[in-house]
Amino acid sequence: MTSVTAIPLPYYLILSGILFVCGVLGFLIKRNIITIFMSIELMLNGVNLSFVAFAAHWHVLSGQVFVFFVMVVAAAEAAVGLAIIIAVYRTRETLNVDQVNLLKL
Amino acid sequence: MTPNLYLWLIPVLPLAGAAINGFFGRSFSKKTISAVALFFPGIAFLYALDIAAMFSSSAAPYFCELAPWIRAGAFHADFAFYLDQLSLVMLLVVTGVGFLIHIYSVGYMADDDGYYRFMSYLNLFMFFMLTLILAKNYLLMFIGWEGVGLASYLLIGFWFIKDSAASAGKKAFIVNRIGDFGFLIALFLLIKHFGTLDFTKLFEQIAAQPVEAAGIGTLTSIGLLLMVGAAGKSAQIPLYVWLPDAMEGPTPVSALIHAATMVTAGVYMVARSHAIFERAPGALTVVAIVGTLTALFAATIGICQTDIKKVLAYSTVSQLGYMFMACGVAAFSAGIFHLMTHAFFKGLLFLAAGSVIHGVGGEQDMRKMGGLRQYMPVTFATMGIATLAIAGIPGLAGFFSKDEILWKAYSSPYGSWIYWLIGVVTAFITSFYMFRLMYMTFAGDYRGATASAAHAHGDRSHGHGHGEPHESPWVMLGPLVVLAILSVFGGWIGVGGRFEHFLAPVFQSAPAADTVGETASSGVEHLLMAVSIVAAGLGWILAWLLYSRLPKLPGVIAEAFGSLYRAVANKYYIDELYAVLFVKPVVDGSSAILWKGVDQGIIDAIVNNAADAARHTSDNLRHMQSGNLRSYAGWVAAGGAVVIAYMIWMGVR
Question: Is the reported ipTM for this assembly greater than 0.85?
Fold first, then answer.
């Protein structure tokens, strides 16, 4: 507790929670696929924030390492996800998820 | 150590014939099939003769252990064969008469499409019958027992396209199952109480048991159950109903299986189990009563039958009744003696009847025959000899054996004058219906259609056109002549008790009925003999009066005894009675309870309802999968919220 004691842990967690809830709400409310995609990134980063906050607080490295994993996966996801979005747009000419509903019984 | 006789060869030879013809016969020529089918039983017969020549009473019984079969703890049942005087007699009868009937079949079945099948079945029957006879334990005997049932089923239903033949085969099989059930339970009881089914070991143990004088003990129950089995196989009351229907089979089958050999298996089994029956007087009495009643009952039915083979069928049932009567008074050798002579003359009667049927183009109704003596003299002569033999005319085979039985029924310690009286009445009826058959068939004028219309119905083995009735070829007449000779002289080996002495070592533990017979005055014996001869003669005279001299009279008598005549002609409505008592309840119960109740109501209902429930549930659940991405997201969020709420309220651990 030498360098980063300026801001206490609960602040980080509250911000992390706000980010996550924003992501969830965006995911549920928005219809544009790209916005939904961004909401997912928001949730991931909200979680990432809580990871690094805890890691700094408890002086364990595993939290930091985990964040790197999350970022790597998120990057891969973004690559694949954006490719799918482009493909969807090319075939259906829309990005409204309510109209992309073929996969059902 | 007795010399090895390779007894197993005798049953296996016909099996080889059956296999060769059964598997490859379709592509063989008729000549090859006949050669194969005759060669193997012929060799078996020659070998049996060879064994008989080597046979010495002092060395008997011979054993032959082929291979171990069932060995469970202390219980052993092996493929083992056994030959003593009793099985030797049976062996010669079965191979000898069987071989003759094989020869006859070559002529009789020559025109049938299923020739190779028929010959293969006949050989198969020989295999099982010889296994039955030569088995050293009850279990192997049971294999033969079931096997002859199978062969009988296959051969009765040989013309399976004909509906009546197929159902007659089924009837024979099912009725026999009832008997086999009793036989099996008897075997279970034997295993439970004595731990073995081997004849020698078993009878040693049983010989040590006391005679069960009163009440029903173990041995009495076993004896009664064995009798149930014997009644099924040998067509005794109440299980005789299958035998008359079995006449749907080709005539050589009726001769071989349903007259000469298979149906006598029950008598053989009872005689083989004599040690059991001797210690169970109650069971013996039942055997005697069943035999006596069957003899009389079947004979009376025989009077009114018009189908030539049905008359002979009821006659067979009746004669088997005589054999059981003999066994029931502990005169086992007399029963076996009659079994042997009966095989000769009844086999001959059936073969001759087959020759008649062949000659008139498939007609079996005696009312459409008549006057056949001039057309088929050899058949007439041989059948006449057989009729004299079965009627008990002195000097022929049937006389000696039947008289032996009647005398034993009277004089044996188990016997009674009632058995004798019923036996004599039956002898009178036997003589009557047999001569009736002869007069209706061979005397008078030919009443059948001479035109080719005659072969429109009946025996399908006749493709060739029919005009006049004609004599059969010599391949059929040869066996008739041989059997006729045996029917004349076959009884003479019993003169002076020689046959009985030959079999004595087998039945030596029997409370010697013969000594009793010898101590009784021979005057009584001669008197009884005279009475039975008179009875046979009266039957002949009556038949001559009614069916030759006064041919109008039978109709008048039938009118006078209207209801009685109809009852007899309809076989006392026994088949109908069984249908109401047993068949209908089973059919109704099966369809109402088992089919509609259990099968449809429970089993099908469970399966169908389970499927319906699964379909309804999934029908409701499938609406969750709407394809709407945001609703999925909502479900995920809601699920996450529930998990978090749970962890908050209930704690993480």
Answer: no
